[in-house]
Design brief:
- It is built from four helices and three strands, in the order βαββααα.
- It has about 120 residues and is mainly alpha-helical.
- The protein has a three-stranded mixed beta sheet with strand order 1-2-3.
- β1, α1 and β2 form a beta-alpha-beta unit.
- The protein is rod-shaped.
Length: about 120
């Protein structure tokens, strides 16, 4: 989890109090235009006997959390592709070391994977 982000809701209310205050909560959240750093920062935890079973959050915070999750998912996919390419690079370098130049044009394959600069630097 990201450093400094809360994992618990900012406030907690029993469900009866949340029902009574719902109008005020909605007005407060309507005035919210800039998303918080985390979904929990402005969340109100609601539940019977103060056992938070649900959160009420401003829609701007929920939308920002969805966008952060989507961005992280895209970045993870990019990094998985990079790891796959690095593994292929390591495999090709090892294969060239063992088999020699005749069986496989490793330089061409490595360049196509985007690691030609590593060959140029002698790594």
């Amino acid at each position: 989890m990201a450093r400094g982000l809360r994992t618990r809701a900012a406030r907690a209310l029993p469900s009866a109090a949340a029902r009574a205050e719902l109008g005020a909560i909605v007005r407060e959240f309507e005035a919210t235009t800039k998303p918080s750093r985390s979904l929990a920062e402005r969340a109100i935890e609601v539940g019977r006997y103060n056992r938070g079973t649900a959160w009420i959050v401003p829609s701007v915070d929920a939308q920002a959390a969805i966008e952060r999750e989507e961005a992280m998912s895209r970045r993870i996919a990019e990094l998985e592709d990079e790891v796959e390419n690095l593994e292929m690079f390591a495999f090709l370098v090892e294969r060239k070391r063992r088999m020699g130049d005749d069986l496989l044009d490793v330089e061409e394959a490595v360049t196509k994977l985007g690691f030609g600069d590593l060959l140029d630097s002698g790594q």
